Amino acid sequence: MIHEWLLLTPAAAFAFAAFALFVIDAFTPDDSGGGLLAAVATIGGIGALSASGVLLLSGVAAGGVELFGGQLVVDGMSLLFTFIFGSVTALVSVASVDYIRELPHKAEYYLLVVLAATGMSVLASANSLAVVFVALELSSLPSYALVGYLKNNRGSVEGSLKYFLVGALSSGVMLYGISLVYAATGSLLLSEIASAMGGASGSYPGVLGIGLLMIVGGFAFKTASVPFHFWAPDAYEGAPAPVAAFLSSASKAAGFVVAFRVLVVGFPIQDIAGTLDWVLLFQVLAVVTMVLGNFAAATQENVKRMLAYSSIGHAGYALIGLAALTNAGGAGSEATVLGASMLHLLVYGFMNTGAFLFVALAEHWEIGRTFEDYNGLGREAPLASVAMTVFMFSLAGLPVGGGFLSKYFLFAGAVGAGVWWLALVGAVNSALSLYYYSRVVKAMWIETPAEPVGIERYPTGLYVAVLTAAVVTVLLLPGLVVFDSVAFDAAAALF
Amino acid sequence: MLIEALILLCLLGAAVVFIAPSRHAPKLALGVSIPPLLVSLYLLFAFDGSGNALLGGDIAYETFAEWLQLGPYAVNYHVGLDGISLPLVVLSTVLTTLSILSAWTPIDERQSEFYGLVLFLEGSLIGVFAALDFLLWFVFWEAVLIPMYLLIGVWGGPRRKYAAIKFFVYTNIASLVMFIGYFALVFGLGDAVSSTGMPAVAEALRAGQLSYLGTPDVGIAPDTLAMAAFLAMFVGFAVKVPIVPFHTWLPDAHVEAPTPVSVLLAGVLLKMGTYALLRFNFTMLPEQAATLAVPIAAIAVISIIYGALLALAQQDLKRVVAYSSVSSMGYVILGLIAYTVYGVGGATFQMIAHGLISGLLFMTVGVFYNATHTRMIGDMSGLAGKMPITATVFVAGAFAYMGLPLMAGFMAELFVFIGAFESTVLPAAPLFTAAAMFGIVIVAGYLLWAMQRSLFGPFRLETDYELGRAPVHDVVPIVTLLALVIALGVAPDLVFEMIRDATLDVIDFGFGGGS
After folding, report:
1. Same domain, B250 and B398
2. Alpha-carbon torsion B45, B50, B54, B56, what sign?
3. CA A263 vs CA A215, A228, A459, B325: distances in Å
4. A95 in helix, strand or coil?
């Protein structure tokens, strides 16, 4: 069937872009501007997002289509997340033109970004633990190198090493977990693991439980959730800002999509609750991640580091999607809260990418990284500052962008699923977060700088990326309706 | 369609002014604020609605479109106006245009941003009064905070950063509390409502369809839920109004805010709180309000007296006017809790009257400040001789505040007192009314005292500025406002008729009443 292969177009768009970059690098290794490379990477991203958008709208994969004997599955959720990866990749590639203009190894940079995106889109479709592991490594290994891209910068190298060490450890742990699950259930396919739950694996509850726990550890690393979060602030701070945008938006979403599929499809809670109640586990993780991320963000003096911690906080919000699957409110309410979590990651993909790209803009201007360094930016760069204001308020959940609606969906979904206290913790954290987000706004518009910033360059690529992200964030407030039924249907299809 | 046009005119105007060069911004802003004003006046004269928008009334200029679906609840784009919201929309447009005019003198830096934010604020305020779906309403409600935060924070006085953040944090936490309260009700209604729309929820609540939040075994009983939600929403809105003891952000915000922003803050933003109290607490949960009648009336009277006493103690003219708002808002609460036609109608009328009068006083204080560069009562005396028109307007405004007959303030307070006096919901209503009336005496006391010291007597000024007549664009807004105050005092039925029509259903819930 030829059209089944067409379902892989989004992932193929990334892969083709990667091959094209290889070829371009081989023939013209000294492309000084990097414009062509960025264009190819951007086209890859736009190709992936439009292909997944078309497939989503056409509804061909609504019921989920299995490929390669069930190793991969293309369904609403994988397409929705590939849409996110495509958008973030395109934004980051456009923004990187200016950011790395003066730096060497441009081809490698774009290549690694696109390869990581390829891994993420495969991860979104992974339907067996073997593919999960391979795809996870494909998306993680390029990320380690990207964080250390500024190799003469101590912070970049240190962040990269930390990221790599934690990543290597957690993927080792996860691989061991996969082998334990295989030992208990006799299969790596998620559907077969689920069906073995009542029968074959009954004899080895301990092996299965420990295996699952270790797999969850791998997801916690990828999503930057407690307890494997501590690489995130250093890696995001040290990394080039566009890479930090890419990691904190796309890579985090990739971690969530695989966690959603593996846990909901492979380890249905009603079958495994007696062995390892992962819903309870995620309830604890969600609360701790939210609280830790937001409180740590409130104490930062460095904007990029604040965003890094806020990114951990948002991982906590998204975890509510898993923590609310208590089966208390009926199947419909479970799909609602899981779909709301997907929507939040979608909106987050734009608003958080935009915020980090604004930091990239600030680094491009070399104005420093603390809140004080942003003083008076509103006068010198009003358009970009308006965009950053939109990102900050939308991240805080004020209704200037889609962030308000997706948070509202998430919390209302949690209440509907019977875990109102999770929604309460989320809402209180969200109110607290306004404090540190508004510090950026205050610095840009209200404070006066000690000395004039003197901005002379207004780089086109970064501006295009930041403003696009801002416009999409605002449009997602009335326009989230385009995605909401897709997300809720995609979530319902998993159960 | 007209409401959308109104909001879009404001937002587009805001965008145009924001990117225009600063030297053209003041006149441009005045220009783009005229079309919304005209549209809103047209809405007022072509109004054909009747009844209360939440209680099955005939909604004017209604637009309804599906927006989102979350689980069992539809979120709709639903806007429309009734006799309560329409006068407030007109108040917003009138005060915005006049405050833009009054900003020409004091605002001398970053003009395009200032006027852009003012117009953005106007659009959001109209949205607050026109929205009939809770989530849409909340979008506008929160959107108001952002321009106000920046307007205080950038153009305010010496302690502007503190005042701005205090305002922002106070009102935002209040919003959260209120939001939780409302959604507890929606979830408690269960299958009885299929949307978050305010009319649907109001009618379901008044029909007594509230059931357990959760299950009867592990859940919150309907009565407890209704009471908890009432309290959560009351506290949430009380901060905005503000009612004692949630008022402490107000003097800081007012004193630090530039005059045109104070006008909008006192004139319209405070009305958001009382409007929401009327729409949510008193329309949706009348029985809980009746149960809590005594404490609420007590808070109202305390706000009246305490606010007036605080005003008496101030040395800064602007603070005097700011604290007097606390006092005036107490009358609104007293009128609402009376649950009589004149009580609730008078409270709504008081919102309009106070919006005009406090706007007038703030602007006049601003005109004095522009000339003298001080607001301290002790620093000046005998200004009346040097600035006769402004002083006359100030005296007239002060008398309107005190309730001089034939002025809007008199009619508003008269309605509230009549309504409160004959209330059957409120025990010992005459007692509360009498105590509230005593507030008038203090109001008269502090205003007369302040005027006597600053306007009359021999001329003396502690600053080195030359006093001259105020420029025309400073005088036009205050004279216009004074004319409106007198017009509403002479012919309250200009708006009171539609207000009365819209409040009839609110007070009709079986055991309340009065005429």
Report:
1. no
2. negative
3. 10, 18, 44, 57
4. helix
**Which residues in chain A touch residue B120, judged by CB atoms under 8 angstroms apart?**
none
| Cβ neighbours of B190 (radius 10 Å) | 14
Comparing CA positions, the residue from B365, B167, B361, B178 lying closest to residue B270 is B167
Residue A143 · residue A92 · CB < 8 Å: no
Which of B138, B175, B183 should one mutate to test binding to chain A, selecting the residue with the greatest count of A CBs within 10 A?
Answer: B183
pLDDT average, residue stretch A260-271: 89
What was the pLDDT predicted at A201?
63
**Residue B46 burial class via C-beta count within 10 angstroms: exposed 0-12, middle 13-18, buried 19 and up:** exposed
Which residues, 6+ apart, have CB-to-CB distance to B207 below 8 Å?
Answer: none
Residues B176 and B269 in one domain: yes
Alpha helices in A148-204 (DSSP H): 154-185, 190-196
Are B176 and B324 part of one and the same domain? no
Residue A469: strand pairing partners: none
HSE-up of residue A394 (Cα within 13 Å, Cβ side): 33
> Of A95, A115, A114, A104, nearest to A151 (Cα)?
A104
CB pairs under 8 A between A and B: 77
Range of the domain at B210: 1-286
Q: Is there a contact between A440 and A388 (Cβ–Cβ < 8 Å)?
A: yes
Number of structural domains chain B divides into = 2
User: Cβ of A434 and B172 within 8 Å?
Assistant: yes
When CB atoms are compared, the residue of B68, B180, B214 closest to A480 is: B68
In this predicted structure, the answer to whether residue B514 has a pLDDT above a threshold of 50 is: no
Residue A345: per-residue pLDDT: 95
Confirm if B153 and B130 have CB atoms less than 8 A apart.
no
Put simply, the chain B residues between 296 and 325 with a CB less than 8 A from any chain A CB are none
In angstroms, the separation between the Cα of residue B1 and the nearest Cα of chain A is 17
What's the pLDDT at B122?
Answer: 95
Are B183 and B256 contained in the same domain?
A: yes
Report phi then psi at B197, rounded to 5: -60, 140
**A400 → closest Cβ in B70, B113, B146:** B146
Per-residue model confidence as pLDDT tens digits over A40-53:
999 999 999 999 99
Answer yes or no: do B85 and B184 share one domain: yes
pLDDT in tens, B166-210: 888 888 888 888 988 998 888 888 888 888 899 999 989 988 888
The Cα–Cα gap between A275 and A288 comes to 23
CB pair distance less than 8 Å for B139 and A477: yes
Contact: B187, A416; criterion CB under 8 Å: yes
Between chains, do A418 and B214 touch, taking CB under 8 Å as contact? yes
Rounded CA-CA distance A175/B218 in Å is 42
What predicted TM-score, i.e. pTM, was given to this entire model?
Answer: 0.89
Closest Cα partner for A422 from A319, A349, A298?
Answer: A319
DSSP 8-state symbol, B466: P
Q: What 3-state class would DSSP assign to A224?
A: coil
Q: Which residue on chain A is closest to B155 by alpha carbon? A: A446
Residues 6+ apart with CB under 8 A from A135: A119, A120, A122, A123, A126, A258
Same domain, B51 and B171: yes
Alpha carbons B245 and B277: distance in angstroms, whole number? 16
Please state, in angstroms and rounded to a whole number, the distance separating the CA atoms of residues A75 and A152.
43
Of A416, A430, A481, the CB nearest to B71: A416
Q: Extract the tokens encoding B261.
A: 């922003």
Taking the CA atoms of residue A377, residue A379, residue A385 and residue A386 in that order, the dihedral angle to the nearest 10 degrees is 160
Number of Cβ atoms within 10 Å of the Cβ of B100: 30
Q: Do B369 and B276 fall into the same domain?
A: no
Residues 6+ apart with CB under 8 A from A206: none
Residue B79 DSSP SS3: strand
Determine the Cα–Cα distance for residues B239 and B167; give it in Å rounded to an integer: 10
> Within this chain, do residues B449 and B363 fall inside the same structural domain, yes or no?
yes
